[in-house]
């Protein structure tokens, strides 16, 4: 059967769609014998539905969303594939200026306000099973705030975050750039933490597809991964390339926002909105010599542990077997070879998160059940 050469790929208007956009703009897809047809999506739920229905072949997508679809959380279970990690780091938690002016300029201050007032602050994330929901809940819980009892969590598309914060519809949000940066620039928001301080070098968006598409189009899938590796390498090569990517992303076809709102944090230059400026040593990365792209099994398993922790999964799955099925590591290694990118021989990695807990994928059941604040449903406790 002839494989697809034209691949319709969805993206959300976020800075970390840059590899997909630049692979198309620079013609890197054609170098590998495929043609990318990009489709700008408006919400993660809409993208999920179009991916599942086959209207999209692949997508720049939340890692946790793909695992949620695989497990049938909030939708019919559909076998999915993670082909690569598109980025790492570069998300943020931002609160309203009004809340910051009440003294909430840290997680500790937020926890103190919740304890003293009993008020449930409203925080937005971008999708219930997605990265931002899991990072936000982890961050709140690390400060002693139960995200389901002490706060109200709502879902808002990323492009609407800054506007909703400015309008007073919520107290804060966790989302990808440039929307936290936009909130700081327009004066409505104050960034309290960046995601790399929650989980250093965490996985960002993934390149996702339905499993049946990958199975039917293995050569095209390898070509797509190789082209995106080339694009990530090009972006990370210099600040000049990052500036060029920011200019492309700012256009109406992609993010439709001011280039400067993208460029600062894309280059690691942060302003928290309260006068603190810093250059982050490890901001949003698209390549990092290939380290940012490998689809570690332990990364996928982490999202499952958090979905279990918060009651989205009623039982503990076979974490390792599930991740080995979803994350197409061998296909990635073959694509990396095509692009001349080194790939590790291991499939797990070790990380230390903000609360000092070590995550290495070796005992996911114990990890999921080790948190003092949780919503573990009956089954496998």
UniProtKB/TrEMBL annotation:
Chief location category: membrane
Record localization: Endomembrane system
GO cellular component: endomembrane system
Keyword terms of this UniProt record: Cell inner membrane, Cell membrane, Membrane, Signal, Transport
Designated name of the protein: ABC transporter substrate-binding protein
SUPFAM superfamilies in alphabetical order: Periplasmic binding protein-like II (SSF53850)
InterPro entries: NrtA/CpmA_ABC-bd_dom
